[in-house]
Design brief:
The complex is a heterodimer of chains A (193) and B (256). Helix content of chain A is 75%, strand content 0%. Chain A is built from 9 helices and no strands. In chain A, helix 2 runs antiparallel to helix 3 and helix 2 crosses helix 5. The longest helix of chain A has 24 residues. Chain A is globular, with a radius of gyration of 19 Å. Chain A starts with 7 loop residues before the first helix and ends in a 6-residue tail after the last helix. Chain B is elongated, with a radius of gyration of 24 Å. In chain B, helix 6 packs across helix 7. Helices cover 37% and strands 15% of the residues of chain B. Chain B has 256 residues and is of the alpha/beta class. Classes of the chains: A mainly alpha (193), B alpha/beta (256). At the A-B interface, helix 2, helix 3, helix 6, helix 7 and helix 9 of A face helix 1 and helix 2 of B.
Chain lengths: 193, 256
């Protein structure tokens, strides 16, 4: 018996190239967490993040309709989708800058229950909120690199694709970002409780 | 709070999240074929998670899917069942409670369509009534254009909006179909035409002193002996009548 190695991404693009509408649902369910997490941690707003993620997939769908099958088969869907998401987000920031400010509260959804007590959950959420807040204060490049590598969990090769830079540069964005993040955290008065 | 590098990385990983509900539901448009009103026949319906977005007569779901895809830029799936209540709404002519997805239309167009949904089966209103009711009394022509582009015909009953002289007026699927739809809903078009020919656009009752559009169900209850015709609401008011609260010929009078 020959063991087969599953290549979900590859076979998905192949299926997608054959029947875009039928297979697109699989693209969405496979990558919605990665896209939503990117949207949430870059925008810092849960209500925006859902719209941004939906817009990302609609933009992707529009692009896929124009691509010929050979091009679709070659796509690396995850970094491609995340690139679209970041473009959509930057677009939104530019548009928002031209409009009157609206409510800027940050909403962070509660992660799924894990059998922890309400107190533990609240504490963890507080910590998550704080960390998300500190992330917002990083420079764009570093924040993007950290979100992609350590929150979304992309391998460096994909981080580099999204950032359009060599892997080494992506690594240094991440490491400088982490240093910056630790510095921010140790100077934040809230940390000194 | 001091943090080891590993703890920080663990906490960053903890910031990953999943959308509150599966995104595919928000993205896809479903298309389905159903049996429409008898004067129309087969009907194709497109709907999203927000509601019904597009309706056309016909039975070719694949061709319809192509049209819907081009129109909305969303992936399509062909399904077997329409949203709940659609079949009943098509049968009864009461489609006001259904959900509609009118995103992509202007605020004005949406207001025109929402107002048109309020016109009951078996009754008609002039274009000017719709304009006045949404506070755009002068935009009668624009109302006609918005109704001409109604993406959800039959369910949003643009066929119930007629010319102020009582004649049917334009319809995207032909005046004959408009006439058939209204006749099937028991609108007495012959009578409305006869009245209009005699200069009667409103009917009052000399027992209640209320004046209505002739198709209003209140007007249809007036016995022939007590029916009084008027050319305008102003003339009726001058004669001591007050406008019906149901069909509201008031707004039109105010804007005229």
């Amino acid at each position: 018996m020959v063991a087969t190695i599953a290549l979900p991404d590859e076979s998905l693009t192949w299926r997608l190239s054959r029947d875009l509408d039928a297979e697109f649902a699989d693209v969405v369910s496979s990558f919605e967490a990665a896209v939503y997490t990117t949207a949430l941690r870059m925008s810092g707003r849960a209500d925006d993040a859902e719209d941004l993620a939906a817009e990302t997939f609609l933009r992707a769908y529009a692009a896929l309709r124009q691509y010929d099958p050979a091009r679709i088969v070659e796509l690396q869907l995850r970094p491609w989708l995340i690139t679209i998401c970041l473009n959509a987000w930057r677009n939104q920031v530019r548009t928002a800058a031209r409009r009157p400010a609206r409510d800027t509260r940050t909403f962070v959804p509660e992660p799924a229950a894990t059998g922890e007590s309400p107190e533990e959950a609240a504490e963890r959420n507080d910590e998550a909120d704080q960390l998300a807040g500190w992330l917002q204060r990083l420079a764009d490049k570093q924040r993007t690199a950290i979100v992609l590598r350590h929150v979304v969990g992309l391998p460096y090769a994909e981080v580099a694709l999204v950032l359009r830079c060599p892997e080494g540069t992506a690594k240094s964005h991440v490491s400088r970002g982490l240093t910056q993040l630790r510095a921010l955290m140790s100077h934040d008065p809230e940390v000194l409780r | 709070m001091t943090m080891s590098p590993d703890l920080l990385l663990d906490q960053l990983r903890g910031l990953a999240a999943t959308p509150p509900s599966p995104l595919a539901e928000r993205l896809y448009t479903s298309v389905v074929g159903v049996e429409g009103p008898s004067s129309v026949g087969a009907l194709l319906i497109a709907f999203t998670d927000q509601g019904i977005s597009y309706v056309q007569p016909g039975a070719d779901a694949d061709q319809f899917a192509d049209e819907v895809r081009d129109r909305f830029g969303r992936p399509i799936r062909v399904v077997k069942r329409p949203p709940g209540g659609v079949i009943e709404a098509l049968r009864s002519g009461r489609a006001r409670q259904l959900d509609y997805d009118l995103r992509g239309l202007t605020e004005f167009e949406q207001a025109v369509l929402r107002k048109t949904l309020e016109i009951p089966r078996g009754e008609t209103r002039p274009y000017g009534w719709v304009a006045a009711e949404i506070g755009k009394g002068r935009a009668v022509r624009a109302v006609g254009t918005a109704l001409g582009h109604n993406p959800v015909p039959f369910l949003i009953p643009c066929h119930r909006v007629v010319r102020s002289d009582g004649t049917e007026g334009h319809y995207g699927f032909g005046t004959a179909m408009k006439r058939d739809l209204l006749t099937a809903e028991q609108v007495n078009l012959d009578e409305i035409h006869d009245l209009a020919a005699r200069g009667v656009l409103y009917l009052g009752s000399d027992t209640t002193n209320i004046v209505c559009y002739p198709s209003c169900h209140q007007a249809r209850r007036i016995s022939p002996d007590h029916r009084v015709g008027f050319r305008s609401v102003a003339a009726a008011v001058a004669a001591g009548y007050r406008p019906c609260g149901h069909c509201r010929p008031t707004a039109l009078a105010a804007s005229a």
